[in-house]
Amino acid sequence: MNLHSMLAKRAAEGRPVRVGLIGGGKFGSMFLSQARRVAGFHILGIADLVPERARENLQRIGWEPERYAAASFAEALKSGSTHVTDNAEALIAADGLDVVIDATGSPAAGIRHVELACKHKRHIVMVNVEADALAGPLLARKAREAGIVYSLAYGDQPALIAEQVDWARTCGFEVVAAGKGTKYLPEYHASTDKTVWDYYGISPERAAEGGMNPKMFNSFLDGTKSGIEMAAVANACDLDCPSDGLSFPAVGTQELAKMLKPKADGGLLERRGMVEVISCLNRDGTDVQNDLRWGVYVTFAAQDDYAARCFAEYGLVTDDSGLYTAMYKPWHLIGLELGISVASAALRGEATGAPIAWRGDVVATAKRDLAVGEMLDGEGGSTVWGKLMPAADSMALGGLPLGLAHDVTLKNPIATGQPVRWQDVEIDGTSHAVRFRREMEAAFAPAARAAE
Question: What percent of the chain clears pLDDT 70, i.e. is strictly above it?
Fold first, then answer.
């Protein structure tokens, strides 16, 4: 509860937390719009593949041109302004930098940025949950060994869920389920970057005018982003993943305690301690009452009759037994809240969620019948979507991680709904991202199997 006062103290002492942002898109722009209003933050630099695009976004969110006119990191450090560049490696290495934010969405780039952060001793906040889903446990381990903080991004749903799980466990409750809400129907798994705008009810022309990325938006729709985010939550909170993937039940906030509990107790879960995503749509397409489309939740159980009685006395919504209840947050503010992670890492040396085990994996799964010779186009594309699986099952299957299912050619045909395996594709074994993922599998797979 004291991050603001700690930042104010740093500002008064003339030693603000110096931050570097990699990726000047929507998420990064939302953070930057608020960071300039927080005493104690200094955005030392912004790295983007297209610096002019980053500058346009800075102008759009109201930054005065002189604030980002520094010609070098040295000038930015001296003047308190910001240097915009296309050189992420130089940004991470810049003198005075405390925290780097990866908001790129590229798994390969994320791995490289964490390694550079370890080398230069910079805390790193991973908006790039794609990299975390691909190799987060090993990334977090290497960060710990380097003496830096590796953190999920507050404002994004995985970190908010991890916060709720931590709250429940610290209060002495057993966590039964944790997850988020989304918009889901089974047909969405077949959605592509060519059909996505029909589901959102907007024209391709309007989407293009708004700079909306069809693959990114499709990833949210086709179930991939949910799988990626729940893998991050499972790995950060040591929770189980459903054996056949997320089921996206249609559940409103007033039904969380009743439905997000084990089947043995009348709910929907295989057992206690699982991740699940709930839909704001019934299977007939009608709206769920009291939906949680934009929010996050945790269901938890009383450990004795006294606690259950307290639930009733203080008005909590419970299941019929009175033992299960839930807490939820109806929204998340994405980059507007990211400063919490930055301040927590720099001032407390604490992550707002980070992998502690390998519990969940995201496997490329065919959207349609795929033929030999076809090239997979990765997250949000027309060939595969990302299905959440228990990590042990993914290893046993030899499933191809979604984060590596881009620009690779099929050697075997894959039927609709079936997983793609490593052996089904032409893979470049010399790729750094591939080698890093294989290193993670070797380091964490035995623990994942033992935990099942």
Answer: 98
